[in-house]
Structures are given as C-alpha cells and as structure tokens.
Amino acid sequence: MSAITNRIRRLRFDHDEMTQAELAGHIGVTRQTVAAIEKGKYSPSLEAAFRISHVFGVPLEEIFLYDARADGMAGKE
Amino acid sequence: MTYQEKGAWLMLAILSLVYGIYAWQIYQMGGLDQVPRPLAWIAILATTIVLAVSLTLGHILLAIFGPKNAMEPEDERIKLINLRAEKIGSMALGACMVFIMLVSMARGDVLMAHMALASLIICELVTHICVVTFFRIQS
After folding, report:
1. What sections of B29-109 are H helices per DSSP?
2. How many Cα neighbours within 13 Å face the side chain of B39?
3. B residues 50-109 lying closer than 8 A (beta carbon) to A
4. What average pLDDT does the segment B105-112 reach?
5. In angstroms, what separates the C-alpha of B47 from chain A's closest C-alpha?
6. Amino acid A69: pLDDT
C-alpha cells in the first residue's frame, strides 16, 4: 500500500468531470502519468503537485494524504 | 500507451529481429571464430546500417500514425523511468565489458583487455565526475 494517496479522481469529477487528458494538459504531463498518479503508482514532483493544487484551487493537503504508518516511518522522529 | 513506451517496444522488436538474424547467420557460418575476416566486417557493418535505418524508419512511422502522442514532451515520470532503465542498462554494459576483458585475457589478447579495462574506468570516472558536479551545483 502506498503511503501517499490522493483525491484527484474525485476532484476531477467535481470540476465538470474534467478528463485525465485535460488535467494532464494543465499540468504539463502525459495522460498516462495522471492515471499513474491517481492509482498511487507514481508520486508526482513537488512542482507537479503544486500545479494540480493550482488547477483545482485547493491546498495540497486536501489533494494528497500521507500515511506515516504505511510508509514505515511512524515513531522514527 | 505513451510514444516513449511504443518506441521502447519498437526498439525491442527491431533489435531482437535484426540481431537475431545476424547471430543466426554467424552461427550458420560456423561460429564467431570461423567467419572469414572480410565477411565478418561486412556482416557487422550491414547489421549496424540495417539497425540504424530500421529504427529511424520505425520511429518516423510511429510519429506518422500517432502524431498526437509523438508531440507530447517527456514528462517527469517518463524521465524517471528512462533514468532507471538506463542505470540498469549501464550495469549490463559494465558486466559485458568485464566479460570481454576476461575472455580477452583468457585468449591472450592483451590489447583488447587493456581497452576493456580503460573503457570501464573511463565510464566510472565520467559517472563520478557527474555525481560530484551535481552535488556541487545543488549545495
């Protein structure tokens, strides 16, 4: 299980059912990369994450959710 | 499927086919040591030319039949995939160079063994110069 999950699919739906290709065009990646991010198979760079945040007009933490336990980093501070 | 992935499938198909035919021809002629030198040069040159031409034509055809895909720039995920693949590819190349060095030493071909070792050292030097430079740039 990935430590980072996201709500991009939901946000696309809420934004007039924006397609993956449209989002990809806005953030400068391929449609396949948007699909990989949605599935949690690829974590985007900070720049791409901020671009997604800008497109949907919501803060990063409302798009990407981090689970420290799934990352195996819990209690390692 | 991205243009880069299609390109990688194309590379796999063409390399396997063209090199397969080359290897089969060499085998038919009795093996690496049995092929007369002029014929071996012709086979190597012809294979290289056929590879270059077919790969170029293949990529042109890919672009013609999928112009939208071909126009897409490489994004961060594609670059990361390429970086990982190239790292594994360079490890394979290094292993092949070590193999060439060992075979050359076993056959008493000192010049080839020296060249193989020098190639390995030059590659490592370039890699570590890049590492140091990139660390300096980002610090």
Report:
1. 37-65, 67-71, 76-107
2. 12
3. 72-73, 75-78
4. 92
5. 35
6. 81
